Amino acid sequence: MLHKVGFAVVLLGTSHASLAQPPRESAPISNISYEITADSSAVGRRQLGVAMSFTVAGTAPVILALPAWSPGHYVLLWFARRVSQFSVQSNGVLLDWRKLDFQTWEIKPRSAGTVRVTFNYLADAVDRAVAWTAPNFAFFNGTNLFLYPAGRGFNWPARVSVHTEASWSVATGMDPAPGTNNFTAADYHDVGRFAIDSTQIAGKWIRLAWYPAASLTTARRDRTFGWLQKFVPAQIAVFGEAPFRNYTIFQRSDTLVNGGGLEHHSSQVDEVTTSGLDAPYLPGLYSHEFFHAWNVKRLRPADMVPYRYDDAQPTTWLWVSEGVTDYYGAVALVRSRVNDSTRFFDVIAGEIASVAGAPPTAVSDASLGSWINPTDGSSGLYYPKGGLTGFLLDVMIRDASDNHMSLDNVMRRLYDATYKRGKGFTGAEWWGEVSRAAGGKSFTEFARRYVDGREPLPVDSVLRLAGLRSESDTIREPRLGISTSTDSTGVAISQMSPTGAAAAAGARVGDKIVSIGDVTISNDNSFEPLRARYAGTTLTTLPMVVRRGSETITLQLPVRLIDRVQTRVLPIPNAPEKAVRIRGGILRGLTS
Ligand SMILES: [Zn+2]
Q: What is the per-residue pLDDT across 406-455, written as a single tens digit (0 to 9) for each?
């Protein structure tokens, strides 16, 4: 995305000797504006119309590029593949252009003046990092559509206008400009018929913009604002400030969505299945994405400052950006009493189980792996292992400082010392602040063995410092080898492993599951009671009733029991006074 748009930066200040220019530096351009057409005609074709206008001072080639990825979603998506009908005009005359590579265009102006680039953009991706349309709705990120001049940085102002139906609304994190649907600053957009509501929390406007509009019922609005009223102040308390002017939670719900959220500077975009609109994980999702407003959108590893958009930008520190965000997402909920301590301990227990179930992988290597989505079982491990590492560091800092300091001090100091000084944090700065908060205790060995190394994290010994212990059981549960999608007509098989139990029973993708054994399958939550009901069973088959078209068929499902480790984290009764203080400090966000 085009961050820091809105800062006045002079683009025409220096003259460049043409021979000295690196090959991919565009001629300077100024007066940049983008126009997005998202009316019912365009979205009916699942296209967005894009126009970019700018001024050139002469005939030097202008080189424009479209990002390869979107910050927060650390995979290469190549947005240029969705572009069609690329065309360039100046003074009413078509200009010549050519591709320099698959995401870069070179334009040759014939004179000084205004240049206008237009193209269509295919907006049919079920992915919150890409663009999507419905007959009365369009969603896009700035990175999807906004061409940028190569080699010119990202600190330049731009205007954005959206052409849409008069009855549709536009929701965006950008600042409004004079006129209808005009803005300055570019991040992402959200256009169409959706429901908007807002409330004030800690002096800031917090807004919900949900699609479809009917998904934002009064009960859901009140409940969601209730969670935000509690956990947002708990997050602000970590950093001492709320760095956004206002904040929007965009949410799209549908029977088929990717699920999850994507963070932006002053907003988050969440995708929730229709059957998950009241799921218990929602406050955790909102809290995680909200904490990103500080951690990663502002406080960020030096490897990702500034963002580059033309290629992957790997860092060994995603475990802090994502995992520690997971930790604060959960701990902010218990500190603000959205969740009770049992639920928080369950989050930690889940992380312990996820790490135990993955191959031994350094969390710094797992961070790098995001870009290639490894198949060895370590994919996304920087979330649970990073979260667990953050929790252990919090306990160790509190233990070393007699609960006078915590991980909060590390986050706040790094934020002040790096983000507020316009830079990212280095490994030396991270460990330096951890050590400083812990009264000078060295974490060099910890980093070498457990973060950059593959030794198992010292979970049990550190848990004890907070008066906690973990307990694991192995459960043998039936597994079906399917993915499902749920809507008002039932639970349908959406994917099936060819070697799984359901495939062996003769089930097909599209079958709607009615019951398995004596458990009725009515929604996504029905599989947990099914697993519990038949855990450790000696039965070899179960009747599986499915609806296929107009028929109802009973299949014989072979029982395939798979080992699953179930972990719990529990308070130790009569733990030492110091450990109880540390445990209470974590749960309440306090130091002694
Ligand atoms: Zn995240």
A: 999 999 999 999 999 999 999 999 999 999 999 999 999 999 999 999 99
* Confidence at residue 185, expressed as pLDDT on a 0 to 100 scale: 65
Residues of the chain with pLDDT under 50: 1-22, 187-188
Average model confidence (pLDDT) for the chain?
Answer: 91
| Alpha carbon distances (Å) from 350 to 53, 169, 344, 389, 568 | 50, 40, 10, 13, 8
- Find the 343 Cα to ligand 1 centroid distance in Å: 20
Structure tokens at 451: 């973060």
The DSSP symbol for 5 reads B
For the four alpha carbons of 360, 373, 561 and 279, in that order, the dihedral sign comes to positive
What is Dmax (Cα atoms) for the chain?
A: 82
Ligand 1 center–CA 544 separation, angstroms:
38
Q: Please, are residues 36 and 18 in contact by the beta-carbon 8 Å criterion?
A: no
CA-CA-CA-CA torsion sign (68, 72, 73, 74): positive
CA of 419 to the centre of ligand 1 (A): 18
Total-model pTM? 0.85
SS in 3 state form for 318-381? HHHHHHHHHHHHHHHHHHCCCCCHHHHHHHHHHHHHHHHHCCCCCHHHHHHHHHHCCCCCCCCC
The pLDDT score that the predictor gives to residue 508 is 95
What is the rounded CA–CA span in Å between residue 383 and residue 366?
Answer: 9
| Distance from Cα 292 to the centre of ligand 1, integer Å | 7
